[in-house]
Amino acid sequence: MHNPNYESFLRCVQDLLDTPEVRSMRQYPHHPRTTCYEHSVCVAYVSYRLARRWGLDYRAAARAGLLHDLYLYNSKKKPSYYGNQCFTHPVVALKNAWALCGSLTPMEENIIVSHMWPLARKMPRYREALVVNLADKLCATAEVVGLRRFSRRVAAHAWTVRDTPAAA
């Protein structure tokens, strides 16, 4: 993971990775044997790579990809939220992202709130939203079928790079 792409990715999201809110995602289970943090960092990195390759706003894709599941509760415990998790968590993640960042661009908002399309009603309005939607489905599928090594490696590297003197 020591390559210019990954270092550029970290420059896009490092300020978010350093926040207690994003770090707290490590305590919440997401897909089988995968935390919300591992999943979100994987989605952010895959989104970053795809958006950059396709000439899109890779910074927005990476940042919103990291925040797309910032719902900050254990979705495996029903009293933690009301309604259907599929429809509820993008709205909660958007509210938490607003609280964390202070402001979001319309593109970032749409990326976060539409990442469950076509299951949820909010449609992606930007190509970057489609990229994050695709990255989310790719990472989730890999995690569910047991290919979670990539998610863990990407997330673990982001966590360790944050604590190294070179990252400061």
Protein described:
- By secondary structure, the chain is mainly α.
- Helices cover 62% and strands 0% of the residues.
- The protein contains 8 helices and no strands.
- The protein has helices at 4-17, 20-24, 36-53, 58-67, 85-101, 106-113, 127-144, 149-162.
- The longest helix has 18 residues, at 36-53.
- The two termini are 18 Å apart.
- The relative contact order is 0.17.
- Residues 159-168 have low confidence and may be disordered.
Layout of helices and strands, plus pairs?
Layout: H1 4-17, H2 20-24, H3 36-53, H4 58-67, H5 85-101, H6 106-113, H7 127-144, H8 149-162
Low-confidence stretches: 159-168
Estimate the helix proportion, in percent: 55-70%
Task: Tell me how many strands there are.
Answer: 0
Proportion of β residues? Answer: under 5%
> Average pLDDT across residues?
79
The class by helix and strand makeup works out as: mainly alpha
**What coarse outline follows from CA principal-axis ratios?**
globular
The count of helical stretches stands at 8
The helix/strand series, from N terminus to C terminus, equals: HHHHHHHH
Radius of gyration: 15 Å
Briefly say what this structure is:
This protein has 168 residues and is mainly alpha-helical.
List keywords for this structure.
single chain, mainly alpha, 168 residues, 8 helices
